[in-house]
Design a protein that fits this description.
The protein is mainly α. It has five helices and no strands. The model has no long low-confidence stretch (mean pLDDT about 90).
Length: about 150
């Protein structure tokens, strides 16, 4: 674990490198998630046709993907809001604010469960493990946040 060091010029705590990496990964992920939530609904019909025409696509995955693509604006608005909350949490943690962890954790738990509640799709163990691992990695840095 890295020790908290103060920046000698400003006297503010120095952000640990691992926390910086986690935040950058979250900036990318949340940014892509929010953009996807805005651009999927208007182009869902085209995407569904493309999926149906692609012979290389696995037949067992088509029904869930088509349900997801045709979820509509209410679903994608919820995904957009949760993605923005996740991004907000990462920005706050970038600035070493503990509140950011709570924003991030709650929004990512929401992103995990919203498809199940709104669309009736199953949650994968991979998604659970990925979400839990990121929340856990951020939790390691709580002591460095104020």
């Amino acid at each position: 674990m890295e020790n908290i060091e103060n920046n000698t010029e400003t006297g503010t705590p120095k952000r640990p490198t691992f926390l910086t990496v986690l935040c950058i990964l979250t900036f990318i992920s949340a940014g892509m998630g929010s953009m996807s939530a805005l651009f999927t609904p208007p182009f869902s019909d085209i995407m569904v046709e493309f999926v149906k025409m692609n012979p290389a696509f696995d037949e067992t995955m088509k029904p869930e993907l088509i349900i997801l693509l045709q979820a509509g604006w209410s679903y994608y608005l919820m995904i957009f809001v949760l993605s923005i909350c996740s991004l907000t949490g990462a920005i706050l943690m970038w600035n070493l604010k503990k509140l950011g962890f709570h924003f991030y954790a709650l929004s990512n738990l929401g992103l995990l469960f919203v498809p199940m509640f709104m669309l009736g799709t199953a949650i994968s163990w991979g998604s659970i493990l990925f979400t839990a691992s990121f929340i856990g990695m951020y939790a390691i840095h709580l002591k460095e946040m104020k």
